[in-house]
Amino acid sequence: MPHSPPPSELQHRLRQATKQAHHVLDHHPLLAPLLTAKMRVDQYGDALSALHPVYHWAEHWIDAYLSQQAGWFDYASRRKLPALEADLMALGRLPAASHLNAVKIAPGQGALIGILYTVEGSTMGGQVIARLLRQFSGPALPMQFYTGYGDQSRQKWQAFLSFADAECPRPEYPAASAAAVAFFEAISIQLDAVWAEMQQTKGTPLTHNASEAPRCAPTR
């Protein structure tokens, strides 16, 4: 496997800025079970359900900004929401309610880089989760979301990093870091709210009748 190039100044800044927030998410009670051998199918569905509003919010933000910057970055081939919704449907689960209405990240060049850094970085992390899910001893799990780009994941990640380094001018570095941190915080807000609701309802999952039409929020 070819070695990745050393991180650029921008990449180093983004990594350092989000290091603590990343650690917090890795240990969140909704996500931590995905990294253990004792994960249950309902816990897997809980995680995907809770994450749906996060990616719905992010992709709406990305689309809105890129609609004013035609041809600047091709996000269409990188969408995560269709795969996430397909996995939820296969599990018979609904998306959790969104708790992100108050989250505001001002549009801008640096902000786009920061949000994409978090979204695309999660795809790389998803490769680790996918490997663990393949070892799951229970029924076969739908894994389109965590499979991500499959064998192309590292290549797509490096392509994004090259884009970020080329297109994010140094004066935008603080905005990129701030947006990445803000988006991590938004994820925590969403997961914390869903977790609190689950405790109040004794963990009853959101499910749908398999005979019903799909009820996931539409992808853009």
Characteristic key phrases:
220 residues, mainly alpha, Heme Oxygenase, Chain A, single chain
Mean pLDDT comes to 89
Structural class: mainly alpha
Into which percentage range does the β-strand content fall?
Answer: under 5%
Gyration radius, rounded: 17 Å
* Low-pLDDT runs: 208-220
What gross morphology would you assign? globular
Query: Quick one: CATH class?
Result: Mainly Alpha
CATH topology: Heme Oxygenase, Chain A
Can you tell me the number of structural domains?
Answer: 1
H and E string: HHHHHHH
Q: What share of the residues lie within helices?
A: 55-70%
The CATH level-2 architecture is identified as: Up-down Bundle
How many helices? The count is 7
- The tally of strands reads 0
Note down, in words, how this protein is organized.
The chain has 220 residues and is mainly α. The protein has one domain: Heme Oxygenase, Chain A (Up-down Bundle). The chain is built from seven helices and no strands. It is globular, with a radius of gyration of 17 Å. The C terminus is likely disordered.
Q: Would you kindly provide a brief summary of this structure?
A:
The protein is mainly alpha-helical and 220 residues long. It contains seven helices and no strands.
Topology at a glance:
Layout: H1 9-26, H2 41-66, H3 81-91, H4 109-133, H5 144-147, H6 153-167, H7 173-200
